[in-house]
Amino acid sequence: MDFSRVQLTQSQRALIEEVHEFIDTYVTEDVIREDRRTGDLFNESVHQGLGQRGWIMPAWPVERGGAGLDRLSAGILNLELLKAQTPLAITNVTRNVATALEQWASPELRVEVLPRVADGSVRLCLGYTEPDGGSDIASAKTRAQREGDDWVISGSKIFTSGAQVAHYSFLLARTDVAAPKHKGLTMFLVPLSSPGVEIHPIFTYGGERTNSVFYGDVRIPDRYRLGEVNEGWFVLRGPLDREHSVETEVEARQIDDLSAGTWYARALGRALDTAVDWANETIREDGSRPIDDRTVSWRLGQVAVDLQVALVTPGPFGRVHCSDILVHGAAELVDLLSPESLISQGSVDELKNGIVEYTHRFAQSSGTQGGTVEVFRAMIASQMLGLPRPTYPGSKNFLGSKRRDDEDDVSRARSA
Asked: What is the pTM of this model?
């Protein structure tokens, strides 16, 4: 890791000023409150504003609708937006899928979709998880059957975040029921406006919205197929690796987040800042402040230290650690600040938009979003530490049957 001071060019300093102006205009307190209220993790005006500046796909050249930013400049852009609590979750998913489309979509489909992704008029979501599939997405049962030049898709997906504001789903479907489960899958880009698509909301304990999406004999042309028939697992692995931060060849930059769980750690950081302000500004009946109590300062300091350790824990290790410290740290702050910490946004005497109460609820889903922490632990064990997959009582291996092939191990480690 390079700890030397980052020397910014004049254009990069100008970019920071431009981003701050954008934030002042678009990422207002009302936008943040509305995002918290709806749980969409998306704002139309913010997304369109990013598209107008080429910032949805910032590294793409200007002639393709991007901003032509170098890697460091693109990192500065994302860092400043993240610090401002810009609702970017759906934008980031769109970016991830667009990268896969560059590689696997037909030329005509790329022309149809990618320019509109760049200008903000098209959004994308992930169609991976199924109701009875758990973390093993290769066990997908959603069917895609060939009928002439079309495919007919039937089945359902769950936890499809952003489907309510997206235009296409990056969908994994089974096209050969007789083939081994990894070899009978095909990827499609399904227009969500197609007849037969139904989107139903699911709200998490933290207030975020995700969805169940039902595909009732949805007919799409073959041009929406990505990659070869029955080779969808190869198409899928790139986006999964990027989502899980396990790409093997990534150019380093000095402002890179080491941890793959930064999103969770920063949420705790905002709650911690509020708790520190509370401890310094609250006056007790005896005239003292909470921060004057050594136990209070020690507990706040412990959360701060845990937070910093998690932020510098690299890759998937950090994904697990950040989720753990978010859960434990949020509970510690709630215990420390009660009853003020339990006042939610919009209530009388809310503590800075109810951020501590919200963070505590948000923490409860951090162990499952983007792949469960159990999946990441398995990934760390098998792919990074070289450990064998564990054998549990009742499993096929425990009963002495033949071990699944290597692809099955990869599926369980990478799927979400």
From this structure: 0.83
CA angle, residues 106, 176, 101, in degrees to nearest 5: 20
| The two three-digit tokens of residue 235, written as one number | 């198409």
Taking the C-alpha atoms of residue 58 and residue 76, their distance in angstroms, rounded to an integer, is 11
Q: How far is C-alpha 355 from the geometric centre of its chain's CA atoms?
A: 20
Which residues are CB-contacts of 236 (< 8 A; sequence separation ≥ 6)? 128, 137, 172, 185, 187
Q: What does 288-345 look like in DSSP terms, one character per residue?
A: --GGGSHHHHHHHHHHHHHHHHHHTS-HHHHHHHHHHHHHHHHHHHHHHHTTGGGPPT
Helix residue spans in 149-196 (DSSP H): none
Peptide bond into 180 cis (omega under 30): no
pLDDT at 390 (0 to 100): 65
Residues 411, 405: Cα–Cα separation, whole Å = 10
- Answer yes or no: are the C-beta atoms of 246 and 379 closer than 8 Å: yes
Token digits of residue 255: 């402002």
Q: Give pLDDT, residue 257.
A: 67
CA 343 to chain centre: 27
Report strand pairing: 168-174 vs 197-203.
unpaired
The pair of three-digit structure tokens given for residue 321, joined into one six-digit string:
């650690």
Say yes or no to pLDDT of 352 above 80. no
Q: What whole-number distance in Å separates Cα of residue 217 and Cα of residue 328?
A: 45
Residue 270, Ramachandran bin (φ over 0: left; ψ between -120 and 50: alpha; else beta): alpha
Identify any residues that bridge with 226 across adjacent strands, giving them in sequence order: 187
Return the higher-pLDDT residue of 132 and 276.
Answer: 276
Cα separation of 327 and 329, whole Å? 6
Return the pLDDT at 237. Answer: 79
Domains, the chain: 9-87 (1.10.540.10), 125-244 (2.40.110.10), 262-363 (1.20.140.10)
| pLDDT value of residue 393 | 55
CA 111 to chain centre: 26
Torsion of CA 223, 225, 228, 233, to 10 degrees: 170
Check: CB of residue 351 under 8 Å from CB of residue 274.
yes
Contact 125, 161 (CB under 8 A): yes
| Rg of the chain over all Cα atoms, to the nearest angstrom | 23
Q: Is residue 363 scored above 80 in pLDDT?
A: yes
What CA dihedral angle connects 272, 275, 281 and 286, to 10 degrees?
A: -140
Distance CA 132, CA 166 (A): 24
Q: Are 270 and 319 in contact (CB under 8 A)?
A: no
